Amino acid sequence: MIARGDRGIGVLRLLVGLVLIAAVVAAYFWAALTWTYASGERAGWVQKFSRKGWFCKTWEGELAMVSMPGSTTEKFPFTVWDDSVAQDINRVMGRRVALHYEQKVGLPTTCFGETRYYITKVTLVEEIPLAPGVVVPTPAPTGPPQK
Asked: What is the DSSP letter of 110?
């Protein structure tokens, strides 16, 4: 037979083990969300942008990048967590932009976004360089100035 005091120690060990597992999982999520594997910028035209998700809603989009006129476009899928950045992207839809991104790896679910590329800033690109010394100007913006 097990003495009454021994059962209490077993329950305590179980609770300590569960707390340790929860702490390890929390530390992993914290590290995956704060650590950036890579960061950079991509320029092009945002061709698709919407808020998606059944339970965890995130902004998901697609940037069409063209290296040379007449060439096929490369698509850059991205995710936006910040609603103010999403508003900035919606404001400049249809115009050439540069998106600053951070690449996160190790996030275990799509609840944090469908892609690994998280946009942190959007910048309007005023000119399109075709070749050294050859620049195609874009139309002047209408409305309030952009960030």
From this structure: G
